[in-house]
Amino acid sequence: MNIGIVVAVALVLIVVGSIVFHFMSPWWWTPIASNWGYIDDTIIVTFWVTGVVFVAVVFFMAYCAYRYSYQKGRRSEYKPEDTKLEWWLTGLTTLGVAIMLTPGLFVWNQFVTVPEGASEFEVIGQQWQWSFRYPGEDGVLGTTDVRNISDENPFGLNPDDPNGQDDILIEDSEARLPIGQPVKVLMRSIDVLHDFYVPELRAKMDMVPGMVTYIWFIPTRTGTFDILCFELCGVGHYIMRGKLVVEEESAYRAWLGEQPTFAEYLAEARSGSGGGSTLVMNEKISLE
Amino acid sequence: MATVAPAEAEALPPAEVEDVELYHSKSWVTKYVFSQDAKVIAVQYSVTAGAIGLVALVLSWLMRLQLGFPDLFAFIDPTDYYQFITMHGMIMVIYLLTALFLGGFGNYLIPLMVGARDMVFPYLNMLSYWIYLAAVLLLLASWFVPGGPTGAGWTLYPPQAILSGTPGSDSGIIIMLVSLALFIIGFTMGGLNYVVTVLQARTRGMTLMRMPLTVWGIFTATVLALLAFPALFVGAVMMTLDSLLGTSFFMPSIVEFGEYLEYGGGSPILFQHLFWFFGHPEVYIVALPAFGIVSDLLSVHARRHIFGYRMMVWAIVIIGALSFVVWAHHMYVSGMNPWFGFFFATTTLIIAVPTALKVYNWTLTLWKANIQFTLPMLFAIGFIVTFVNGGITGLFLGNVVVDVPLSDTMFVVAHFHMVMGVAPLLVIFGAIYHWYPLITGRMLHEGMGRFHFWVTFVGAYIIFFPIHYLGFLGVPRRYYEMGETSFIPASADTLNAFVTVAALIVGFAQLVFLYNMIRSASSGKIAEHNPWRAVSLEWQTPEMPPAHGNWGPELPVVYRWAYAYGVPGAAEDFVAQDAPPTLAAASGDDDRQEPSPQPAE
User: Fold this and answer.
1) 3-state SS class at A186
2) Any idea which architecture A119-281 has in CATH?
3) Are A105 and B78 within 8 A, CB to CB?
4) What is the CATH number of domain B6-10+31-250+268-593?
5) B303 close contact with A: CB closer than 8 A
């Protein structure tokens, strides 16, 4: 059989197979649980633009393989350049790029602009666990410094900062958020790079020691979601998991009321009954 | 116009540089071991890169075993796994692809394609290889030190790279950094050589705009590498100082496992900027030679000139320049100032335009051609498919907001393997099938080659295409095992097992290729002179394989561009670059039939 035809058929099969796979694949986005549906929309636009190009290019090659397979004595066309064609292709490609980039930049602008009135909530990463801090009654998170970290003060809060006294500290890797309210997540790491990601939220950001990073979103669906670390942080990277529970405001308030504040933490530690935090006293996790 | 009337031919400029007297080796050792002949050095580079590449191949199998069957292979623990992924990535990107394209193909092809007798600094060229070899051996040595090689990921991000939670943080990371520094030193010697050779040692008539795109690709990539590698070099030096002397270039105040570390004030993100200022051009250091080589493979075997030569040259140069202003698209979610996202998303998507033009011109080269489906042609077609596929997923990741959910997922893994792993490797395979007869005087076995092509091309595609969809799902990369999650269905495990089996099969096909290369060197079919009937100079040497000094007593004189295929009226369907115009004119290669925008003065 003519190998040109074999190649042409193989190329067509690759395109058709890819398209069929795309529509039949059981592996696709998790159902979204935040306001970042815009991101999914931008991806759909990108899929269409790039998909058309992929199909067109490979089909064109398949046609050439079929049509221009070697024949003894035939000469190929001698036409080194076609300026008009090349400018057309440049123009169309630029247009396609603009169609993808423009919505992308608009959505990015939303992504980095935190709306007024978003409540703050802090995520702290360390090898290989999550902990969380809520601002408490005053709505303001107290200042922190890695140098304040001790058994009594695992979050490194500034003990003299009045804003920090009512901060609520969560050490057991499960955070809760109320549905429908914009939240600004402030992120901090005390050792290496980590990355806070809940696939259903679509928003992620690295956590960098020495600085505070942020994302914002509005939870739009109640449920319990996995938190995973998405930046390689050492040998225990893959076991660094947590839970995010999104629930109705009332349930959230009730839960929050049961959690210890920083002031209570300090008091408990000073009385000697609590034995300090489990966080800092953790030995290196043995993985074997 | 390029050529033609004998009077014009005589008006060729005199040689600007006198023919050099080469070093002539007197013993076997100086001829084949400490050789100063670029062709021997090229083979040394290629064999070394191939050998270390086999190590990376085995590592990929081990990784896939763990991912496909997480409970089956108890001997792979998390420490091993992270060391495997790190070493696999670093070997493939630096020690295999960079070394093979520039040290291997660059050394062999540049002097031959521009009509030089050798590189301009042969002794430096020899040193370049031996330092590269030292870097490779040092890298391998890290398996034999306490703690083993580093498991920091090939990106080596501090602080974790030098802290105790990461495998190999005691000495593996230092060895890695020193090995990289050595590699860069060795590369710089070779790289200066390639650049100066292209600029200074071209033979008479070989104008820049007559050079084969292979030379343009390797030349531009080398310039990029000379500008980009220093960023990695200083990054490596600074991290070594942080680790050994306790400086804090990349280290802020840190409490690790409840212990204060004596660091403060440094910035982990600074390292990422240095790394990616190197790392993104590095993508093109690998891609541009592949672009150039594949252009030549397509043209020769389609029996047609490359379409839009001048556009192709300018696209290479523009892509090379733009590659220096896109690096932070690897850092959209790194915590850098988020406003950078606007700039880097825009530059990144702009680079898609010249890249897409190259793709169009490759396919237009096949249009109205007379395509011979030789092995190099098959691999070139495979390259276009995988490169387009990997290129368009780059548009997802480059568009800042789309990158947010996809970064650090398996989508990224699938993307860069398709575009920077499979695609350039297909070019390398095609190039080996193409130039093997020139280097050894023998042809590779066609049947084994066909087997190798179909298994590798189709296999690699069905390995990496579905992995994108795991990324959409939210499966993270660099996970030793997924464990329990609420969002990953059991079918993902089945897919992982399938991918592992496919990877082992594709890996096996590479062993067939290896066997083919070894076997054909002694018992392959003897190649006739210029077996592909190619235009470019490397096939026009008096002897094949080319002897020491490449050319006979006289250097060749070039009369036309490297793509004179299907010239109307010519006796054959190609006219060699150095065929005298009188001869060519006699066979019909006259003025009118030169391409009107002929890319030469």
Assistant:
1) strand
2) Sandwich (2.60)
3) no
4) 1.20.210.10
5) yes
